[in-house]
Design a protein that fits this description.
Layout (H helix, E strand, L loop, with lengths): L19 H4 L6 H4 L2 H4 L5 H8 L5 H9 L13 H16 L1
Bound molecules: iron/sulfur cluster (SF4).
């Protein structure tokens, strides 16, 4: 049976605060130990960003979050506001 749910498929488990690709990683991932510091706005973003710098997923994680405006908190070393600014700049450059 085929799903008619447009939101079906792999999605971050935001209800738990931890996305699937982080949960499934075999190596140590800093945000897995303290997800509230990362995936909620306003909770220790400075510390979370520093820990992201040592994570081997930092680039794909930032790209993942950049493509998903619904995500908040620190992802791939970027804050919600920084990603919003990048999207705004991209739209402006495309319109020019
Ligand atoms: S880059 Fe940061 S938010 Fe992304 S998986 Fe690594 S520690 Fe978690």
């Amino acid at each position: 049976m085929t799903s008619t749910n447009p939101f079906a498929g792999p999605r971050p488990t935001l209800d738990l605060g931890i996305p699937d690709f982080v949960l499934e990683a075999r190596e140590h991932v800093p945000c897995r130990a303290d997800p509230d510091a990362y995936f909620k706005d306003g909770l220790r973003p400075r510390e979370a960003r520093l820990l992201c710098q040592g994570c081997e997923h930092v680039d794909p994680c930032a790209a993942f979050a950049l493509e998903r405006p619904e995500l908040s908190g620190v992802w791939g070393g970027t804050t919600t506001e920084e990603r919003r600014a990048v999207r705004r700049r991209s739209r402006t450059e495309l319109a020019a």
